[in-house]
From TrEMBL:
It comes from Eurystomus gularis. Keywords: Chaperone. Belongs to the POMP/UMP1 family. This is POMP protein. Pfam families: UMP1 (PF05348). It comes from the Eukaryota. One of its GO terms (biological process) is proteasome assembly. InterPro entries: Ump1. One of its GO terms (cellular component) is nucleus.
Amino acid sequence: NSRGASSLLKDSIPVIEFSASGPFEGHDLLRRGFTSVKSELMPTHPLELSEKNFQLNQDKTNFATLRNIQGLHAPLKLQMEFRAVKQAQRLPFLHSSNIALDTLRGNDECISFEDILNDPSQSEVMGEPHMMMEYKLGLL
């Protein structure tokens, strides 16, 4: 017998993966991780998606109007300024007001919902500074 005893045991004992199937299947946390309910939720109202993308839609409309009035260079310049302002931010554990972005959009003189009810001292964003920096740098 050239195959050995261990290969005979592998051939003679069928290995069946024990898993429940059907409507009562348990979720295996070790293999599949935690379930994400948020990704499975659908919008509850037709206007919800429109409201989530309000700023993006408004920017697109403003860029189209600016292009029609001043030409192609104006929206390109404004988009480049938006991108530069978004890159310059504070550390992830510090609150950032993005006043430069508000100024570019023309929202610096408007009083909105976030100005009154979004108090940074009551924010839940503050966390462990070292962990948040490591996460942003991709070390975690």
